[in-house]
Amino acid sequence: MLELENNILLNIILNDNEKIMKLKISDFNYEKTRYIYSIINDMYKKRLDINIVSVANYRGVNNELLKYLSKIVDKSDLVGHDLQNQIRELNKINRERDLLKIEKYLKENRNKMNVIQEVKRMLDKVERVDSNRLVNLATVKTNSKINERYKSNIKSLDKKTNGFQMGQLSVWTGKSGHGKSTFISQMLVEAIDQGYNVCSYSGELKLETFKNWIDLQIAGDENIDLVEDREYSRVKKYIKPEILKKIENWYDGKIYCYDNRLIQDNIENNFVINVIEEAIRNYNCKVFLIDNLMTCSFENSKIQDFYKAQSDFVGKLSYLTKAYDIHIHLVAHPRKTTGNAITQDDISGTSDTFKRADNVFCVERKEDNTNSIKIMKCRETGVNNYEVLLNFLEISKRFYESDNEMSKYRKYGFDRSEEKCPF
């Protein structure tokens, strides 16, 4: 338990001061860890900067405590990634400890008159061990700047949604072949161009195909040659090697994909969650694509259990966006592919998918071969049932606004550096 308490202290000092609100001094079981936490807690209440140096120099820290702090820092490799789970583990241990105290008290005092009242008091304490979900609002640190987000660079869409905000889940639906995955891959390119690392999880699309799409979208029509493939009576799209090398160098270390070439049956939804957390911890990814909801295996076969499992999975994704301050794009196929316009009840799973999402979009290809993005829900702006009209460039697989012809010539980072000042 001492190692657990040490890890929690170091995690709080180095990574997550906000978790101070989740613990009480009495939650620590050792004198030194309890005293160090009381110092950190005092500094937090006074709104002082909390780091190893400031804690070591705080009043009341003697040489013995300095040595102990140094010992904790030397073992920094023991620090876990998930401080919340460490706190839960400590709470669980403390709860078991208090229950043992109650059991001991009952054995020693079974003949006393006031034993019932005392047991009630002790049980009340046990129940409150995990009651730290309530937060004093005055202690919450806020940022005066607008919440972190990135733009789609489709002006009509950004105007109605304020862009894709971190801490939100966007669900994308639409009929098969209407461009959901293609449009979101373009949104990943936009995120990369605005300085974010991204991660794609696809249970359907081949990794080589996905890379080809991304490369074409980044290159743009002007950097793509068309070569006739007489053997298969088709035209192949060809990015010149020197251009492709620039593109790959530009996004090197910025986009990560789950390797679906590995043979693995029955990928459970918890596995997808683990992939997301690994991308966050190891590669600092902030924007995610999960394509699609139906490729995640759910344990129960009964219809009602299947939909509940899907709903729970979407709930977990929503929780992840808030816990890690990321944005997740989730593709959810509609249950019907013909007939009238798609509604919220048609989205894969139950209506909970629609309710849990912060944003819901429908991608549609119209009869005249134009395209649209329908905003079915935007929690932040309150916009719903608003349609943005788009055109599609088949060569580069780019979407652009129908009323903004110049937007189809958008240049990304690899190409922008080549622009020269005309004067």
Topology of helices and strands:
Blueprint: H1 2-14, H2 31-45, H3 52-56, H4 63-74, H5 83-108, H6 115-127, E1 149-150, H7 155-161, E2 164-165, E3 168-173, H8 180-193, E4 197-202, H9 207-219, E5 224-229, E6 234-239, H10 241-251, E7 255-257, H11 269-283, E8 285-291, H12 303-324, E9 327-331, H13 351-356, E10 359-365, E11 371-378, E12 386-393, E13 398-401, H14 413-416
Parallel strand pairs: 3-9, 3-10, 4-7, 4-8, 8-9
Antiparallel strand pairs: 1-2, 5-6, 10-11, 11-12, 12-13
Helix pairs in contact: 1-2, 1-5, 5-6, 8-9, 11-12
Describe this structure in words.
The structure is a single chain. With 423 residues, the protein is an alpha/beta fold. It has 14 helices and 13 strands. The strands form three sheets. A nine-stranded mixed β-sheet has the order 7-4-8-9-3-10-11-12-13, sandwiched between helices. Helix 1 runs antiparallel to helix 5 (83-108).
